[in-house]
Amino acid sequence: MVVASLVVPLLAGIPNREMRAAPPVDPITEAGKQDLATNLLVGNVAAAEGDNSEAARAYGVAAGLAPTFRLFGERAFFYSILAGSPEAAALAHAQPPGVMPALIMGNAAALAGRWDEAVTHYQNAPADQIMGLLRPLLRAWALQGAGKTDEALAALAPAEVDARLGGYYTLHSALIAQLGGMQMRADTLFRQAAEKGSGDLFTTVVMARWLVTQGQEAAARDLINQRITAMPVLETARANLMAMLQHPVVSHATQGLAQAYGLVALLIDQQLYAHEGADEDHAGDAAMEIGTLRGTEQMMLRMALTLDPADSEARLLLSSMLHARKQDRQARAAFDGAPASDPLLPVYRAEQADLDVVLGHKEQAAQELRDLLRQAPDDRTLWSSLGDALLDQQKWPEALDAYQHATALAPHRLEGDDWRLLFGQAIAQERQNHWPQARVLLQHALQLAPNEAELLNYLGYSMVEHGENPALAESYLRRALALAPSDNQIRDSVGWVLMRLGHVAEGLPLLEQSVEQMPQDPAINYHLGVAYWMAGRRLEAVNEWQNAIAFQPDPMDRRKITAALDYAHAWQAHRSMALPADLKPVATPPSSPSQPNGTRH
């Protein structure tokens, strides 16, 4: 399901975080001015860091200090929605008319059981493309909440002919009819929805539940199994999903409202996928469009979870979206507050463990994954995640064992993303000085994923370090850099290997760029120091090695850096002494360096 354009004025009147506020016109004391300035600064910083709760709080204080300056109140409202704060409902009444205030007030009325009021708010929301998608569903479910099933079905009927989303509207009509006690009408609508088709998790569970009511339990289980095959992350919740089939999926109108917001979030997520690789920091209309889409998607998901905290798909999508924006602490927190009855709780625990690895909570992540594996010992996704956690702790034998468990559980020959399992095993083998085994694994992984820059980088770098086929290693690394020209780790690898192959003049600029981008990485500082030494720039070399030691290198790098500094000290008195291995080329370079295959920088 793709909508041509979802850039709509949902955020009209909501300030961009880059905007500069004019001085407030309210009379205010000097102390009040200082307090206002402090809270605006706190709000700006919190917003930039993705701490929406703190941003909402700080802008709320600013709004109280300068109540006639509407911008502060609008910011407080905006960030309270992004944070999923209950304060949003109270703030909505003070906002100028618009889509978001109308939706928030409608949702609050629905949660309070004031269904006629909810219908009015949803009906009065200004028209735009997203309201064109939302309004039929919101009105229908609010009418159902008010006990007006016939009117609810009539509200959805025109939307059911939509060529793109008609099946989704028909599914909701079926659920509304079922909730209203019109089972024969519901069965007809379910059959129509099945013919139109839809691919999200909610639809799968709803249709599987309906099949059970029709006496087709085997078909229902097949449907769930197909969804788990398509989404392996659901494996830990397989038993829970099967158990769901014995109970109605939707038992209250607020759940239907939540699914309406989830639909829009899914559509926006697809729109953002089309923009993958674009950067908000880039100037222009595209960056503004992406920022608007991201903000709108997050608000849709927060509203879905406010209406239905058990909306599993919304919770997963929210965490995934925050992780993609490198807001990993918030991505982990997105799983907090899920009800104990949520069937995807094991999935949330696994996702939190993966995020703990990213956040540096390695022991906690590994322990959580081991606990989950005791409940689901045949879940290869969990074994793979455990391998990642152990690899990050440099527990090479344990990581290798975890990856091998995951590989052994493959239901078919390795393919697709299975290259990551081979890659993890290769790293664990190579770090235990089992290079021949690691090389075989890396080459197998490369057959599965010939254009993975990370894989090409590791293979090429390791080949040079082990003195194998430097020309082929160089070609792997240049290819990696061509595939990921902005990856600083790959740039460092290419510069280091070029220097090791004797191409000092070509490798040195790449290493200097790497240090500029990552000035406190001890391995990169060490590499640049070696390049400087080989270029005859001795003082600069020693300076880089001293920097590298100060940046707390791992034990292996520390030994190399210490050896280089010891050599530099001894060299002052004995310039004829032998070079350490890293300070001399690994092979005789060709008479003229080969040219890179593609973009270098």
From TrEMBL:
Renumbered residue ranges of the record's region Disordered: 581-601
Residues spanning the signal sequence: none
Lineage summary: Bacteria, Pseudomonadati, Pseudomonadota, Alphaproteobacteria, Acetobacterales
Keywords, in A-Z order: TPR repeat
UniProt repeat feature TPR, residue ranges: 380-413, 522-555
Coiled coil ranges: none
One of the Pfam families matching this protein, by short name: TPR_16
Protein name as catalogued: Tetratricopeptide repeat protein
Xref: InterPro entries: TPR-like_helical_dom_sf, TPR_rpt
